[in-house]
Amino acid sequence: MNIQAPNRVAHSYVQQLVAEPARVFPLLCPVREADWIEGWNPLLVVSASGVAEPDCVFTTAAEPGDAIWYVTRHEADAGFVEMLKITPGVTACRLRIQLQASAAGCDAIVTYMHTSLGVEGDAFVAGFTAAYYEQFMRDWEARLNHYLEHGTALAGARE
């Protein structure tokens, strides 16, 4: 048995979104993300309803093998979703998003926690800096707000 201390990194960011939680929450979905993220295209979505729900599973392209995502909690009334993302041999990730109403629409508290599963994961964890995460979250926030304001995906490459 090989038991190791975790090599892990976690960051949170508060996005300020221009719509109320009830309008934003359905967009936090592997199917609906294609509406607002140019180029988003999961390889497989396993869902009874056709969108995000508890126990929804989806896969995305990743190296060295496709990433497997599992929706562990999906609470529309509370504006809360939690997913696990496993990239075999690289990282295990927990993603939590909590929406809270605000005067301008809502805040989305987005937290990623990555745990290394090996040498490639160690490199990923080292590169998942606060500065990188802030840039990633600002891009996501801009794309989501553009869609909420214009109904179209923001053109251009993602960071």
Automatic annotation (TrEMBL):
<protein>
    <recommendedName>
        <fullName>SRPBCC family protein</fullName>
    </recommendedName>
</protein>
